[in-house]
Amino acid sequence: VIGVVSSPTGAVIRDIMHRLNARFPRRVLLWPVAVQGERAAAEIAAAIDGFNAMTGPLPRPDLLIVARGGGSVEDLMAFNDEAVVRAAAASRIPLISAVGHETDTTLIDFAADVRAPTPTAAAELAVPVRTELLAQTLDFQRRMLNCMSRGVEQRHRHLTQLARLLPRAE
Q1: CA 146, 152, 158, 164 torsion: positive or negative?
Q2: Which of 65, 67, 69, 125 is placed for a possible disulfide with 6 were both Cys, Cβ 3.0 to 4.6 Å?
Q3: Among 87, 7, 93, 104, which residue's Cα sits nearest to residue 49?
């Protein structure tokens, strides 16, 4: 389960969902927040704390993504707020900061467990590619069966050689 702290109306959540569904579909819980403006910092910090405090019918996320698209320094200021940075640093759930674009840096990036250059990249960091995992698992299975077959063949040859040395019962 992946918890996302972001605006429910922006392109960011659509990009994250699209990338997750293409790579390895997971359950996503969105905690809608303002990502800029006066109330944004308080909402973001409360969302991070809220995900960490979750109990009840909804599962607690295994990973958090705090995301916002690019913008001016002023637009990203909520992610430099002390309350947001402290909430990110205190999060018991691993947190990926995905604020802005590659050249944007905010203080939450330093408090997060991982910084992603974009929200789409955060989704890529969050989950592996399912088809690649399946292929790797099938390869491991093939290799294990080959090893087991070789081991049985070697033991069979060894047993056959030992049997030749035994005296014949008459």
Answers
A1: negative
A2: 67
A3: 87
